[in-house]
Write the structure tokens for this entry.
Amino acid sequence: MQTQNHQQSREHQKCTYCPSRTPLRPDPDALQRGQQLQFEPPLDEGIRDIVLALIAGGVETFESCEGGSGHSFPEPTVRFEGAASEGLRAMSVALANGLPVFRLRRVWGIIDGAIHGPWWEMTFDPPKDSPLWVERNTAARCAAVTD
């Protein structure tokens, strides 16, 4: 019976047998909310254009941050759902839109001692006029320390 439930849930693209797994494919309702620009909480201004470009390309984002001091991530970051091929597809969307991709990785989290995931995480180079760019400049930081 467990195998049958597992197979049936795959047809619906969400594994109910494995409650800690994220969806295997983007949720059409979440994509529609994103396409309608309904975000809760609102998008950080510094990541807004990136998220909108990914959504326009059909990538279901579920978390984003412009990065930097006082933010959840040190650099601009977008997390999104999807199977193994979704990372490469999202990378194609990002590059086709001229987005400054820095890193793409598959991520698993630990919640209450259980593995949760995987999901995708794409990070971006911050804009050159951003304070984040200055923070990344290790040569300038090292020079300041030796002065």
User: Anything to note?
Assistant: Residues 1-24 have pLDDT under 50 and may be disordered.
